[in-house]
Amino acid sequence: MTTSRSFDVTALGNAIVDVLVHCDDALLDKLDLDKSTMSLVDATRAEEIYGALGPGIEISGGSAANTATGIASLGGRAAFIGKVADDELGGIFGHDLRATGVAYDVPAAPAGADTARCLVMVTPDAQRTMATHLGVAGSVAEADIDPVVIAASEILFIEGYLVGLPGAAAAIAAAVRAARRAGRRVALTLSDAGWVAARRDAFRTLVGDVDILVANEAEACELTRCRRAEAALETLAGRCAAVAVTCSERGALLGAGAETVAVPVGGNVDVVDTTGAGDLFAAGFLLGLARRRPLADCGRLGALAAAEVISHLGARPERNLAELAAAAGLQLAPESPG
Amino acid sequence: MTTSRSFDVTALGNAIVDVLVHCDDALLDKLDLDKSTMSLVDATRAEEIYGALGPGIEISGGSAANTATGIASLGGRAAFIGKVADDELGGIFGHDLRATGVAYDVPAAPAGADTARCLVMVTPDAQRTMATHLGVAGSVAEADIDPVVIAASEILFIEGYLVGLPGAAAAIAAAVRAARRAGRRVALTLSDAGWVAARRDAFRTLVGDVDILVANEAEACELTRCRRAEAALETLAGRCAAVAVTCSERGALLGAGAETVAVPVGGNVDVVDTTGAGDLFAAGFLLGLARRRPLADCGRLGALAAAEVISHLGARPERNLAELAAAAGLQLAPESPG
Q1: Which CATH class is domain B7-325?
Q2: Is A50 at the interface with chain B, CB within 8 A?
Q3: CA distances from B95 to A23, A57, A224, B84 (A)
Q4: What's the CATH fold of domain A7-327?
C-alpha cells in the first residue's frame, strides 16, 4: 500500500475507559470477584463494586485499543474499530486514541447505553482483576465495519472479548470477509481463559478461520484442553500460520509452521501492574508480522512492549516504544513493505 | 464536638476532575499558555487545547477538595462543599472524594453545565500549567452551604479560586457567617498569583475577615506588594492570626502573632509533578491548627503532606499520610479536642 491511509493493523474490540484502583485480596473476596479474571457486570453490580472501592484514576483502555496504541508507539500505523457513546468518557476515549496517532473514525452512538467502563482492581502482587460494564461497546455492529480500512491493513486483529457477544458476531464476520476479500491476514487474541471456557465453540470456529493467534498459557490450554503451553502451541500451530503463547515471567513461545521459538521476557522489570501485558505483547508481535520480520524478532518486539507496560500503572505505554525498540536493535522501517 | 458529624475542616471550593497530560514547553508556547499558572477557559478554548494534547489520565482534583482528601489521609475528618453536574465526571468526583472518607453531600446539578475539567499540563521540569473549564463548579451557591456542617467544623477553609466568581460571593459570605455564628475559625488560600492580581480588592476584603491564611511566596507578594516572602509574612501576620507562606524548595515560613517559624521541606523528594503541593501543605497545616498543635508541628505536617504529593503524578496523596506523620513523630489523636 502506498496511500496515506494504509495500516499495519486494524484492531476490532471493545472501546473501554479503565478505572484503576488499588485494593487488597480481602476486598476481592468480599466482593466475590475471581482474582486475575475479567467478568462482565451489569450497571447495578458495577455500582456496587465501585462503591466499595477506593479512589481511582481513569485511563483509556480496552484490550485491542491498547494494542493499537502500542503499535502506534512502536512507529506502526494502526486503526481501531469499536463503539463509544456520545458522553464524557466516550470523548476521553476517542481523544486518547487519536492523540497517540491511531485512526479512529467510528461515530459515537448518540443515545442509549453509556461508554464502557472497566473497574481494574490492582492488588499488591501487581495482578489485576477486572469487572467490565460493557455499555454501548457491546453493540458494535456490522455497520461500524469499514471494509476500506480493513482492506488497507496488513492485518485485521480481533479481540476475543467480542466473541460470543450477540451484536458483535455480525461485525466480526463482516470484518473477516473484508480482510479475506483483500487478501489480508486475520489475527485473534483469546483474551481470557474464563471467557474462552464459556464460549469454546465460538472460539474454536473462529480459530479455524484466522492466520495469527495470540494467547496466554491459560487461554491456550483452555481452548485446546492441553495441560502445558508447549502442547497447546503445537496444537494451535497446526491450525494457524503463526501462534504466540505468552507465559508470564517465563517469556513466550512462538510457532510458525515447523518453526518454534522461545522468547525471554523483555528485560528486568519492577512489575507494578500487569494490566495490558498481553495487549502490548500483541502489539509488538503483530507489528513484526505485518512488517514480515523474522518470527524471533516479532516475539522480541512483543516482549519489549509488554515489559514497558507492566512497569507502571495502566495498560498503555508511557514511553516511546519505537525508541526502546531501536535501542534493542529492533528498529522498524517507517513504511510497511505491504 | 462529640457527635459523629464533627469535622476538623470543611473545605469550600471548585469540584474539578483533572486531566493530566505530559507536554513540553514548546507546546505551551504554541497554545499561548502562561507556564505554571491557572487560567479559566471556555468550552471552545478547552477543546482547542485538549485537541492539541497527548493522551491523558483523569484524576479527581480541585484545590480545596485535594486539601480535604489530604486531611482525611492524615487521619482528620473533612467535609467538602462544591458543585458537580449529574454526569460521568461528576460521579467520579463524588466517588473519589467519599472513598477517601471525606463527607460530601452537595447534590449534583441535574442539568445545564458539565462537571468542571482542568487540563493539567506537566512539563519535564515537573511544573504544571493549568487550563480550567469551570462548567457547573462556578455556580456553587448560597443554597449549597450547609451551616450545620460548618458549625460542626473547627475550621472553614475557602479556596481562593472562588474569590471573584459571580455566583460564589454569596456562598462564601454565607459560609463565613455560619462559621462566625458558631465561633469557628475561617481559613483562606490565595490559590494563584495571577488570580490575586486580577481580583486584588476582593481578596484584600476577604483577608481582613479570615483567621488563617495559606499562600505561596508569589501569591503573598502579589497581595501585599512586598518583594520577599519574609516581608509579606510580616504584613499578613498583622491581619490574620496564623499565616503560612510556602517557598517551594526553600520550605515554608509561618507566622502567628509575634511567633515566626521556618519549616524545611518534608524530606528528600524526587519531584515528579508539583500539582497539589500547596493544597497538601494546606491539609497538614490546617489539620494541625484544628487540633491546636504547636505552630512548628502544623508546618511540619504540611511539609510532609506536600512532599508526598509531589513525588508522583496527581494532586491527591497515594500513601497513607497518617502513617508517614506517625513515622515522623507527628501522630495525631484520633479525635479532635474541639
Answers
A1: alpha beta
A2: yes
A3: 15, 11, 42, 12
A4: UDP-N-acetylmuramoyl-L-alanine:D-glutamate ligase (3.40.1190)
